[in-house]
Specification:
The chain is of the alpha+beta class and 174 residues long. Helices cover 30% and strands 34% of the residues. The chain has four helices and seven strands, in the order E-H-H-E-E-E-H-E-H-E-E. The protein has a seven-stranded mixed beta sheet, sandwiched between helices. Strand 3 and strand 4 form a beta hairpin. The longest helix has 16 residues.
């Protein structure tokens, strides 16, 4: 089974609910996507609404991967820079693959689809993303062609006694 990726799909109630389910399931499985477990869909809803508003306003692009049953299995937001000197690269945010699909190569497929989408946007030369240290994400992104370009030790507080590095990764497209 392979995922079917769509850039800028219509945001229907089913898609919105699928994104909420994905985000909650990824977070509750230990994923580092802006929250810490345990979360509910209602905890995530305000952040998803903000992300979808940026998408609707043209500040970002939405990439969604659907499984063979048509369920949301992966997603990422490609977000443009508003600074006039940084418009040649974009951010990749909220990169997620559903836990039941992890280990099947779908993360690599998602990153490849995001890179293809970014290459199709005039003037974009690179993708940056941030990840939470301590989970091995840097190794995964490096294996997909990204390189570490920055690290702020202890910048992410996931609990009062648990600080993680904020790691910036870069993929050059051209």
């Amino acid at each position: 089974m392979a995922l079917t990726f769509t850039l800028d799909p219509a945001v229907t109630p089913d898609l919105r609910d699928g994104l909420l389910d994905l985000w909650a399931d990824v977070t509750n499985a230990g994923g580092a996507v802006a929250f810490t477990a345990p979360v509910t869909r209602e905890d995530i809803r305000p952040e998803l609404v903000r992300s979808l508003a940026r998408f609707a306003q043209g500040h970002s692009r939405l990439l969604v991967g659907l499984d063979d049953d048509g369920r949301v299995a992966a997603t990422a937001f490609l977000t443009f820079n508003s600074h006039r000197l940084m418009g040649h690269w974009l951010w990749l945010y909220t990169v997620m693959v559903h836990p039941k699909h992890q280990g099947l190569g779908y993360g690599r497929d998602l990153l490849a689809a995001a890179a293809d989408a970014a290459r199709g946007i005039d003037g974009i030369d690179a993708i940056r993303l941030g990840c939470r240290g301590g989970l091995g994400l840097e190794r995964f992104y490096t294996s997909c062609g990204y390189r570490e370009v920055g690290r702020v030790p202890g910048a992410i507080r996931v609990a009062p006694d648990d600080h993680r590095d904020d790691v910036t990764m870069l993929l050059t497209l051209r």
